[in-house]
Amino acid sequence: MTDMTTDEQSAYEEFARRAGQGLVRAFVPVRGLDDAPDAAAEALAYAWEHWERVGAMDNPMGYLYRVGQSRTRRRRPGLLPAPEAVGMPDVEPALVPALRALPDTQRTAIWLVHACGWTYVETAEAMGVSPSAVGTHVKRAMDRLRAGLEVDSRA
C-alpha cells in the first residue's frame, strides 16, 4: 500500500508498537536470538505494505508470524537463548536445555502458548495447524519436560 491516510498510518504505527516486541519474542525459538528481530522487522514491513488487508484481520499477529518465517531463511537452527540474555525471570537451570531438546513443533507450540501468551487458535494459525494439534503439541511437550526435569505433574 503506497497511499495511506493519516488514520491508517496512525493505526499501523499503534499496531507496530504493540506487536513488535511480541513478534520478536515469538521468533526467538525458531530463528534464534540474533535473527528474531530481523524476522519481526520483515513481518512488520509486510504489514506496512499490505496494511489495508492486515489491519482488518482477526489475528494479524499469527499471520505476520507466518510471513516472518517465510521471509527469513533459516541460517542456523532456532535456539532458545540463556534466560539472562533476554531478561527472562529466574528459571530452573535445566529448563532451557530441555526446551532445546524438544522437536521444533512442540517447542514452538509451547513457547507461543506459555511464554508469549498466545491462544491455541492464534498459535494454530501461526503454525499452520489446527487448534487441537496445538493442544497435542503442548501436551506432549509438557509431558516430555516433566519427565526430563523429573517433575511430578500432581505437584
Describe this structure in words.
- It is built from seven helices and no strands.
- With 155 residues, it is mostly helical.
- The longest helix has 44 residues, at 6-49.
- The mean pLDDT is 85.
- Summed up, the helix count is 7
User: What percentage of residues falls in helices of 4 or more residues?
Assistant: 55-70%
Number of strands: 0
Poorly predicted ranges (pLDDT <50, ≥5 residues)?
A: none
* Structural class by SSE content: mainly alpha
Computed CA radius of gyration, to the nearest angstrom: 17 Å
End-to-end Cα distance: 53 Å
Secondary-structure element series: HHHHHHH
Strand content is: under 5%
What integer is the average pLDDT?
A: 85
Shape: elongated
| Main β-sheet description | none
List the defining traits of the structure above.
mainly alpha; 0% strand; single chain; 155 residues
Task: Give the SSE map.
Blueprint: H1 6-49, H2 51-54, H3 60-71, H4 95-101, H5 104-115, H6 120-127, H7 131-149
Question: Summary?
Answer:
This protein has helices at residues 6-49, 51-54, 60-71, 95-101, 104-115, 120-127, 131-149. It has 155 residues and is mainly α. Helix 1 (6-49) crosses helix 3 (60-71) and helix 5 (104-115) crosses helix 7.
